[in-house]
Structure formats: C-alpha cells, structure tokens
Amino acid sequence: MTKARLLQGNQACAEGAIAAGVRFFAGYPITPSTEVAEILAKELPLIGGRFIQMEDEIASMGAICGAAMTGAKAITATSGPGFSLKQELIGYAAMAEIPVVVVNVQRAGPSTGLPTSPAQGDVMQARWGTHGDRAVIVLSPGSVLEAFEVTVKAVNFSEKFRTPVILLMDEVIGHMREKVELPEIGELEIIERKKPTVSPEEYLAFKPDEDGVPPMASFGDGYFYHVTGLTHTYTGLPTQDPKVADELVRRLNTKIDNATEELTLYTEHFLDDAEIVVVTYGGTARAAIAAVKKAREQGIKVGLLKLITIWPFPGHIIKKLSEQAHTIIVPEMNYGQLVGEVQRYAGMDRVVAVNRVDGAFFEPEEILAPIVAAHGGAK
Hints:
Elements (H helix, E strand, L loop, with lengths): L4 E4 H11 L2 E6 L6 H10 L6 E4 L3 H13 L3 E6 L1 H17 L3 E7 L16 H6 L8 E3 L4 H18 L3 E6 H5 L1 E4 L61 H16 L2 H4 L2 E4 L6 E6 L2 H14 L4 E6 L1 E3 L3 H8 L4 E6 L5 H9 L4 E5 L8 H15 L1
Parallel strand pairs: 2-3, 2-4, 4-5, 5-7, 6-7, 10-11, 10-13, 13-14
Antiparallel strand pairs: 1-8, 6-12, 9-11
Helix pairs in contact: 1-2, 1-6, 3-4, 10-13, 11-12
C-alpha cells in the first residue's frame, strides 16, 4: 500500500481512472463534478493522454465514443442536467457496444435545482434514461477509497462487456475528504478489451463470443467495419430484419444479465442476526452506518446492506434478506427511487422509505428513528 493521503472523492475518482488506464477525457465543467475534469486536465497530458473541454455535454459524449473506438480507454464527468443531455449518445454507445465510463456526481434537482447540494435523484435516470431496451451497469461508491476502487471497476466492466458504465456518485462523496491508502498499481486488476484473433477479411465486428461480447478492433488497426446506432448485422451494417433485431436486443441485455453475480458489489454490516435491515448506497450510507451502530448499542438487532452495484439490481440478495428480516428500511436523498426495487423483491408491507429532497444530508438520527419504531412495532 502507498502512504496515507488526504483525498477528495472527485480526486480519488480521477486517480482511479488513470490507474485503470484511462488516457482520454472529454467534458464540460459542471458543479459538483468539475474537480474530476480539472485534475485530469492536468494529469493526462503528463502521461501521454488527452484532455478536451468540449462545447457541451452532447459533444463530450460523442468525443469519448470516438476516442474509445480508436482503442483509448475514455471517460467523461458531469452532473444531473449534463447527464440528461448525454442520454442519447449513451444509448448509441450501448447499441454500438462502445466501452466508455460516464461519471455523474449527483446534485439536487429537478432542472438547475440546488447545484452545490447533495442528492441521489438520478438512480432511475441511470437505468431508464435512454429509450429502448438494454441492460445497464451502474456503480455507486460510498467513500473516498471506494471512489478510487469503484472507478477502476467501472473502467474494467466497460472494457470487458463493451458497454457504457455509469459511475453514480453524489456531492457528498465527490466533495468529502478522507484519509486513504490507495493500492499500488501492480496490486490492481486491470482488464483490457478483447481484440480480434482473425484477419481483417474474416472479422465481423459485432459477432459475439460465447460470453455474448464481440471482440473489438480499434480504428486504425487495419480492420474495416461499420458503426451505427441502427439495428445491425454482425458486420455493423443496418438491417430491418426482425430476427436480427431480436437477437441483437436480447444479447445487449443478456451479456450483462448473465454476469450479474460478477457485477454485484456490496458490503455487509451486522447482518448475521439482523431482524431489521437498512439498505443503502452512496453518501447516504455514511449516516446509515452510524445509525445502525447506535441502534446496536441499544440492543436492536439491525444490520446494513450497502449496495455498490445499483444496476443490475441485486434482487436475489434483497429477497433472501426479506426472508430473515421483518422490516427493511431504505434511506435515500430523493423522493423514493431505489425503494421501489426493494419493494418489488421484499414486498410492499415490510419496506419503509426514508427520504430527503431538501438538498441537505441525512443525520444518523433520521435513520435511527424508523429503526427504533420498527423494533418497537415488532414486539
């Protein structure tokens, strides 16, 4: 391990991107994600990378798609309004199977909202923001160290599965500072995208291997292929054939769905004997963990599941916990988004939503109160 450092979450994200091999960033400044761009603007040119400030968020998304197709690991960073603008090209990247990472440091909305205040209001936009059917990978770190580690995971997943990956941070994690010891580069698992093993004449850019992921040639390597957002054959050329469309859309989903176990990242706290479970993620986990510890001191059998992977949603874990616990509490800095997924697997009657939409961070007591109430109600 390296020596201890005091790092901001956005800085840890930027350093995680570099450690994962990212050498291209295109973006547009927007609070509270701007530090990611500022740091990469300074650091990427020093290691042979490229930084471009684009004219807007749409152009930024197009630029990282283009860079990724030339073989670069590419990333962009934004916040809520910019994330909305990126949706069309996120969908394009999904259809064309372009590996990119989109960092969204969430802030309070709707619209311009509270630009410097925390929120977790983009959970459903991350899943359903693009039109059409496709599986998604969305990760949410809950500490500064996780901001580094999960950024590496996001880049790895994007490269392995040829898909855009959303790193869903929030202002709390993006701007907080913690003492951390980052792993050495040699200690990290770094995944590179699959390259074709056939000649350019034999290469079919969108013909999948057994894992559902096609090998990806880089532009400039001598492999010619067509890239489109239209439904396409293995060659990349557009088609209206219903059978081809069916196979393609199903594969865009199953290549992720079939890897759910590998993609599901989470931490557990006091779950062995828990009769009440708090399900949390991102910055909210900070207050939730404190609340659970206080409840434990009062003799309440409560545990905590901190999700790092939000999508694909780990419903199998929630279902198992619902067989053990009589109450599941879901605190979120939104009006209620991930709680609906928890209810889908645990049942409406045993799930309690705890919400803040005022741009303020949770106090542990706000999460402790429903824990105590659930404990009393179960007696």
